[in-house]
Design goal:
By secondary structure, this protein is α/β, with parallel strands linked by helices. The protein has 8 helices and 10 strands.
Length: 309
């Protein structure tokens, strides 16, 4: 509001451009995103500890609906404002249709995404424009290879002495194992609705796609290998956020994906804690009624890691 005294930013804040008050608000460990909110409500403030966004705003571009498991740009924005300053470099090793890249550009950051699917890489490029963000179409398992980054060096991505890039922040939402290949019963799920509309219900049929790995143990090893290599590209003291969810296997077992990522990735990056993203408008399923308790997983763990060694 005009004439209102604004909080002063501290020059000593080397991590972000937030005030102390905004910093404190962000540290609340849960926030809400994706409920049916009033589209006329006040704009989102940087660093706000809770976040309500009208679910109708999720798909800014019709092409993004092709992707079966994207996360909203508003989610990425929350973390970008805390963990980076304007002009810094952000990496997403599982870029999908480009939500991380779009949010980075909207907040004045530089962005690089890696995407296996040529189809989704093309969508991400269209959403960000070739000049504004770099989308590398290829296998994320090569993220630590020096020769993978020749195009990045040519496009101005900061490079270290080892010939590999250096980033101030990594944020990604990797495949939740093979969850997209399993239909949900009880009600007409989002997956079934997408199939009826002819939209993608899985990322791809590419054997290199981690979402197609049959063995859970092999999947976790491969995924955490990618994340560890991406973490190796961070500058000392900087952060990575991995958005993940526990899930339920068809046989009824609960797969603790988020906790397994924390355990394995925590061996090479320091685990700093988590923020929980609550999806308040996600459709409820009648999975276990009337005899067995089966939870509706409507929250995701935003796992926060720091490179300290």
């Amino acid at each position: 509001m005009a004439g209102e005294k604004q909080p002063r930013k501290r020059p000593s804040n080397q991590l972000n451009d937030l005030t102390g008050t905004e910093w404190i608000r962000f540290t609340k460990t849960w926030f809400e995103l994706g409920c049916d909110a009033d589209p006329e409500r006040e704009p989102i403030e940087p660093g706000r500890s809770w976040l309500i966004v009208d679910s109708r705003r999720y798909h800014r571009n019709r092409a993004t609906e092709l992707h079966p498991a994207r996360y909203p740009e508003e989610l990425v924005r929350e973390f970008l404002l805390f963990f980076t300053k304007e002009g810094e470099w952000v990496l997403d090793p599982f870029a999908g249709s480009g939500a991380t890249l779009v949010a980075a550009l909207e907040t004045g950051r530089n962005a690089v995404g890696i995407e296996l699917s040529e189809r989704y890489a093309t969508i991400a490029r269209k959403r960000t424009s070739e000049e504004a963000a770099l989308v590398l179409q290829g296998d994320a398992r090569r993220v630590g290879d020096m020769d993978f980054w020749s195009e990045g060096a040519a496009r101005g991505v900061p490079m270290g002495e080892d010939g590999r890039p250096r980033f101030e922040f990594v944020m990604t939402s990797p495949p939740y194992w093979d969850m997209l290949h399993h239909s949900r019963g009880g009600v007409e799920s989002t997956q079934k609705k997408r199939a009826r509309k002819g939209l993608d219900t899985a990322y791809s049929d590419d054997p290199s796609d981690l979402g197609n790995v049959a063995s859970y143990e092999e999947f976790v090893a491969a995924l955490c290998g990618v994340l560890a290599e991406a973490g190796g590209l961070l500058r000392e003291g900087r952060y990575m956020v991995v958005v993940a969810q526990n899930l339920r296997a068809p046989n009824g077992d609960v797969i603790t994906l988020a906790w397994d990522i924390q355990r394995e990735l925590g061996k090479v990056l320091q685990f700093q804690g988590e923020r929980i993203w609550c999806q308040n408008s996600k459709q409820l399923g009648i999975w276990g009624y009337p005899s067995v308790f089966v939870p509706n997983y409507h929250h995701h763990y935003c796992l926060i890691f720091r490179k300290t060694r």
